[in-house]
Fold this sequence. Notes:
By secondary structure, the chain is an alpha/beta fold.
Amino acid sequence: MCGIVGYIGNKEAYPILIKGLHRLEYRGYDSAGVALLNGDLNVYKCKGKVADLEAFAKDKDKHGNIGIAHTRWATHGEPNDVNAHPHYSQSGNIVLIHNGIIENYGPIKEELKKRSYKFRSETDTEVLVQLIENIKDNEGVSLAEAVRIALNQVVGAYAIVVMAKDNPDELIAAKKGSPLVIGVGEKEFFVGSDATPIVEYTKNVIYLGDEEIAVLHRNGEIKIKTIKNKVKTPYIEELEMQLETLEKGGFPHFMLKEIYEQPRSIRDSLRGRLNVNKGIVKLGGIADYEHALIKASRIIIIGCGTSWHAGLVGEYLFEDLARIPVEVEYASEFRYRNPVIREDDIVIAISQSGETADTLAAIELAKSKGATIIGICNVVGSSIPRATHAGSYTHAGPEIGVASTKAFTAQITILTLMALQIAQEKGTLPRSKFHELISELNTIPDKVQAVLERNKEIEAIAKIYKDAPNALYLGRGYTFPVALEGALKLKEISYIHAEGYPAAEMKHGPIALIDENMPVFVIATQGTSYEKVVSNIQEVKARKGKIIAVVTEGDTHVKSLADYVIEVPPIDEHLAPLLTVIPLQLLSYHIAVMRGCNVDQPRNLAKSVTVE
């Protein structure tokens, strides 16, 4: 489910493959491996990090100008040396790397066992490489044709790269439901799960489509066909990613760098879409479907994890500003409960990577029912933008840290613009309020910068609570989703158990957890629910809980009750999530660092979840 790298050309492949694996480490993984062809087929793989693979292969033959490499996040079979990719066929002729899941690997494996095939690993991937060899040998076809026939027999998701000892001039790549990008150089090709291993070498890329197979030849020729044997014309696009965005830029971790990039990423997401002087909000990507949004009787927002939290903020925005009923659904549950989807529904799908398997599956279900699908995504050329009718990119830039930060605020920025645009066209928002909100929205980047300047005091608070075993996060209204997101960040990177709740729900159960050792993080900025939140704080204090409050600058009431406060600039409550989440991101970051956790690559997590 994690990282794929491939190379064929005239250069030494190993340095390119290893550097590519390092670029892909942010996706999360538990083992790594590489295969190189130089007359002999050499496969090196082990449990652990890419650095462990480098140490393992240090004194081994690493020559060859064709090769494939992989970082694995375990699905079938525990993380160990044997289950690590690449996997090779029984004869040792064919080697394969794979992201995704082959759902019907069991019956195929049993059939191959009857044909005397033996299996070394517990993986579904080894079944696929053995199937390809069986077809190639028994039907007397080329490697590419054997791959095509095999892929017609498997059920599931895959991105694969295949090479063979007896076919030293070709790499075969194919995908369905899992991302794969081909970089086109001068008589050389690069393959990656995303563009990060490629951008250093070429700006020309091909985004392989679902059920497409690419044959990459050493002479610079590329042929693409579908698994149904239909020839496709390769479409080369220019890569927009910049190499410097993949470096830490002096920060100790990508996560901290990305937290600090939020003034820029929010500004970039606003650019060209918000004109305060003219009083215009216009998202060009949804222009053709603006009328459908205006007439929508219901909006369904789908997402997973942090994107789901952004969707909850979107629910408040669309209902409050545009007066359209909204339901927010976990994409992973949406298609399994036979949801009611109507042709006049608008489905907004949110995903940082654009490759989230659960969200893609939910999109296909909604499309089959005739709904209009709008995408909000960060990665140009990814699967979700291609699967949706329309949408908007967030322009957050590459997000390398597994725990999402700048993607969250960029998603909220797009949702805010979208809600304001529809509200403006529907006339559901007084003109004076519309101008007030767009003026405030334009100030958000500077206000986020002001919050970032409080980093030292936030770090000091983190030091006090770094050893807490549990934490509660409370918010109301627009800041309730922020409480959920703050708790998720703490869980993800510091491994502290944390839960987010609507502040009023605390007394309906969670209040039983509060004692003198329980830190309670409360978002208590000025807004319509402010007095109610103050009452909830008093309930916590009455039970000796420790209050860490995010408050509006100048607040004295909450300051007199809380153990610690973090001030943010005054902001309209509709936009409060964009500011109030920043200190919670920083708190989680500093606590994780102090606990010695791997901030950018938390255990068990993957950046892009491309399997169910």
